[in-house]
Amino acid sequence: MDMTVHRGRRCSAAIAYLNPAMRRRNLEVRTHALATRVDTEGGRAIGVRYIRGSETIVARALREVILAGGPVNSPQLLKVSGIGPGDELKSHGIPVICHRPGVGEKLQDHLEFYFQVACRQPVTLYPATKPIAKALIALRWLLVHDGLGATNHFESCAFIRSRPGVGWPDVQYHFLPLAISYDGRTRLHGHGFQVHVGPMRSKSRGWVRLASHDPRDKPRIQFNYMSHPDDWTDMRACVRLTREIFAQPALEPFAGEEIQPGKHVTADSAIDEFIRERAESAYHPCGTCRMGSVDDPMAVVDADTRVIGLQGLRVVDSSIMPSITTGNLNAPTIMIGEKAADHILDRPRLPPSNRPYYIASNWETAQR
Average pLDDT, stretch 108-116? Predict the structure, then answer.
């Protein structure tokens, strides 16, 4: 599985893009600051106000303002600036500069659960969770930047179709050679392994809305997870297909007792209860400033990432995705940034890709 790792260290967008650019004379980075408003004049964005310490500062834009606050902060900042659903803005006493009903709507995410199995053989990462082993792993990473400290351990993945009639893989697996929670607080005391599995194309939609006109107040966020009946069908398929995969002969020497959900969780009602208790976010929010045609009332930005109905303002982050991707959002969001940079710099557009892609010949009638 691809990772954004360089020389044993997580390579974030800041490390890969921002840090090298900070040597440029035409770039100034202000940290520990809170953007509070996009200033507009005559239908055009002319700058950004932000708070740093006790000081309010206005940064004027010679050409454009570019928001990259993500799927929560970008719609919040647009709304407190008067750009968004008119009724919501008026209810908070915010003058409507640009009525865009789609700002903050269509929030999407990937929901997943852990399917955990005890391992019959001592081949997992369980010994690496001991204090002395963790200290040695850290020491090796500090000295040579490799070893178990230089990976996130999600090194195997899979994408499969959940049922007949689905034309593309819609279920994703991350395999981890350890049975443990994301935060490390709960783990199996013994050898085990797990997959993080969930549907890629949930039909549930949520929203991000203002709590008040004050940009310092956290917005209200409602994901509306599992609010569409098809999402329950997809989650049940995830449980049953994973159980089938772990029962294959290739895994027979390794797969022991099913820890979670548990072999008794077979009926739809039991699976649904397990999902209610154990499903959690994969931290892939998007869609709250969706891209679309200028005549689409729910679109927020056009094909060049420009806010529709206002000049000199763009949004460049995962909030502009019209629909969530079939896979993790880190690389696609970086790609959005690179593509938007070409538009901002007015570079010639690349031709559309005509690369072939795989389609199962029997997708309409069979799951595999």
Answer: 97
